[in-house]
Amino acid sequence: MTRTLLSLLFCAASLTAAAQTDRGGISPQLLSRLRAAEAASPTHNALRNALAGTSINQLATNPLNPEANDKHFSHEVPSKGITDQQSSGRCWLFTGLNVMRAAMIKQYSLGEFQFSQSYCFFYDQLEKANLFLQAVIDRARLPMDDKTVDWLFQHPLSDGGTFCGVIDVVSKYGVVPADVMPESYNANNTSKMSAILSLKLREWGLTLRKAADKGEKAADLNRRKEKMLAEVYHILAICLGCPPESFTYTLRDSSGKALSTKEYTPLSFYHEYVGKDLAASYIMVMNDPSRPYHKTYTIDLDRHSYDGVQWTYLNLPMDEIKPLAIASIKDSTMMYFSCDVGKMYHAKSGVLSLRNYDYESLFSTTFPMTKAERIQTYASASSHAMTLMAVDLDAEGKAVKWMVENSWGASSGYRGHLIMTDAWFDEYMFRLVVDKKYVPAGTLSLMNQKPTVLPAWDPLFRGEE
Known about the structure:
The chain has 465 residues and is of the alpha+beta class. Helix content is 43%, strand content 15%.
């Protein structure tokens, strides 16, 4: 090969590399500079060797974090029995029912009483299937690439949810004790059942769109939908069991003494032992610093049933949310609470603390994003619901830490509970449902605003799992 040809090839390669860089690609020159920046050092080599056989969290753990050992609380709502959602996304349902059962246990001096999560979950899944099918019918004339239609087919059904789902299900179908409709394998392990139902719903969604496109009338589309829902009911009954229409039950106190033996329907049991209009009794508040405070918001299609409660919340700063939670705990009342539970969680101690892990020192970098920026970039969102039940206040009445009753079983975390430092609470708490009697009148009046409607695909708003 001639020297001239070699020169031409070298120039062509150089031009190609330059063009790569101009287009935003990684050129050989850029790669060379990146390699040079990773200068070898004893510290780098030691970290690389350690991470070859160790998890990042293990190496980044701060073993001297004093916040991981403090288990004292100045105010705590009594609780009996830790629940376990196992391999399911039903934390929202466990949490809502746990709030109600705590009040019932206190009122009637019960032992470890539980409501049937499986009973409520059956109707939640049936209602969600109907919500999807009817929403498809309502939008049958829109193209498949319409943003809402696309979102519906991406999310036909899930086992996650929010407190509005608790309101929808128990207000319409009531509740039953856990031993009246016990948990099944598929209630505790929902992924396969959810996948089968989602596949059928997507299939039926296309069927309904094609029928509507051919000019089929609304009444005929509804008849099709009813047959589809009959199949959903059948699949749920096979997987979860048939929910009872009536049952006889003996309520016993903590000593085993029978308080009453009656025949109930699920709704009559709910009215006798819960007795609250949940939609009228509670307010949901949110801390979302990416949007203006003291405004109300609602999320399109963020409900569990077609004719149910559309989730509407009031956005408040943390210094206005915490007094509501403290007032409720001081009055021995638990609350529905949700957060980004996976962030800085130390499973062995059950403590959520910003000081649990030192990623900055491990990787020689910083993580400066604010809570608002993490929300906007999908780096943080509410992922799990639990029951807020304790706060530790200092001498000046300021919160030092909080505790929740979790639904991951009694062996997880701290005896089935999670403890959150107040600094962690500020950064990763998102939703709180509070009885209106603990909310100042001025704050309640803000709920009279016409809410801003946000799209179903908003980055912060997904169901807790």
